[in-house]
Structures are given as structure tokens and as C-alpha cells.
Amino acid sequence: MNACANEEASRVEAQLNDVYRKLLLQTASQREAGEKIKAAERAWVAYRDAFIDAMYPAKDKQAEYGSIYPMEADLLRAKLTDRQVTALKELLQQYSPSR
Questions:
Q1: Which long-range contacts (CB under 8 A, 24 or more apart) does 52-57 make?
Q2: pLDDT (tens digit, 0 to 9) for every residue of the chain, 99 residues total?
């Protein structure tokens, strides 16, 4: 189960990276937009990590949450990342040339 959850998190992360790259390519000629998108993505990564830490605040996570912790953390990371994929796709539409 841990391996499957990790694979899901990795799959969604790859999807996020793909959409992010497309977005940066789409805005390559708009320096200010690209900088703001990069800043927003850095802020989102910080938020994602802080949110996961807030959900599982114990210092010794394995002792506190047990063997299910890696699976739960990966599934939460996948869930949050999937939401960000949707948000980046909306931005990509915003900067689409056919718009």
C-alpha cells in the first residue's frame, strides 16, 4: 500500500511538472507573468509542505502515526498536488493564444 501511494504521488507530481513546464513555455515572452507564476509555485510548494507538516506535526512521525504514516502522507501529497495541477491548467488556459 505504501508503494502504491508513493507511485500515485509521483504520478501526480510528474503531471504537475508537465503542466508547469507548458505554462512557463506559454509565458516565455511575458517576463513579468513568468516571474509571478514561478513565485506562486514556490509559495505553493511551501504551503503544501507546511500543510502536510501541520497534518502530521509529531517530530517522530513513525512512532506517533505508525506504519500507515508514509501512505497517508503520500496520499495527502497526491491530493494537494492534484488540486495544484487543476489550478495550473486554469492558468495555462488564461495564457492560451487561442483565448
A1: 52/76, 52/77, 52/80
A2: 999 999 999 999 999 999 999 999 999 999 999 999 999 999 999 999 999 999 999 999 999 999 999 999 999 999 999 999 999 999 999 998 876
pTM of the entire predicted model: 0.92
CA nearest 6: which of 65, 71, 51? 71
Size (the chain), residues: 99
Residues 20/90, Cβ–Cβ less than 8 Å: no
What is the residue whose three cell numbers read 511538472?
17
Residue ranges covered by each domain of the chain: 2-94
Fold of 2-94: Substrate Binding Domain Of Dnak; Chain:A; Domain 2 (1.20.1270)
How far apart, in whole angstroms, are the C-alpha atoms of residue 49 and residue 42? 11
What Rg do the C-alpha atoms of the chain give, in angstroms? 16
